[in-house]
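A protein record pairs a chain with a discrete description of its three-dimensional fold. The following entry can be read in just this way.
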Amino acid sequence: MKRIEPISYVYDSENPDPRQTAILKQVKEYCKIPETQPDKDTWAYIWQVLRRLSLLTCWAEEANDTFLLQVRTQHFSVKQVNACCRGCCRCDDDVLKVPLAYEPVPEQGYVSGKMTLVIGGHLVTEVLDTEYLAEHTDWETGILYINREDFPNLLLYRGSCCCLCNRDVRITLVYNAGYEILPVGILPTVCALLEKVDTDTSDNCASAMSEVSGLLKRKKVGNVEYEWDTSDDSAYTVDKLLAELNTLGVLGEVMVYSRCSIAEPDEVTGEVI
């Protein structure tokens, strides 16, 4: 399947991304944003809100990641536990189980995959076919199963599963995962944060914009052009957002969509694809 790149914070008014158009329509209608407000400005606010929420809910690993549908890269390492020893008849499991960090689009989300390990002092790489990955994924549990017998040269020792000499196997998966549109349950939070961001940026331009860590990457006021730091993944930014969400009373609603290990929602109100 084709890589779906992260949705951009840049809005091209002449040739907008269809995903941006759909989200703009969704947010404008729900939050009752005046039609007179330019889409370019509205999108700048929306993207920064989505980015902050993605950081808080552990969906963001790279600079432009959000919880929306996009390509993800996952690295997984597994060590063969049985060392070569005399009379060894115990084997590792016949199957390598890889829990997926994200939930890919069922049966078509995989972009690529590979398995690498060192054999005899040489790095060996085996490409994993995307159809194989899809067929061997349990979509309900989010676990990929790789059969040893399907890769005898890498995962078996001299034709058997016994005595694998502590080989380290590294599995790299690239797949698309995330939400196609904004979950309905998170829209009230988006509206509240949009209003707060709009208020914060209407008074003292320099200080307010710095406070929200580069809401607009740069802004010209008169003959002076301001430019702000775009590193929005600091602990301060996340802590500040946590405080704001607590004040708004919507932290629980946001954490329903979290993939952080500490988040254990009682119910699922959106569908990850």
About this structure: The longest strand covers residues 70-79. Residues 117 and 258 are 33 Å apart (CA to CA). Residues 70-177 form one domain. Residues 39-56 form the longest helix (18 residues).
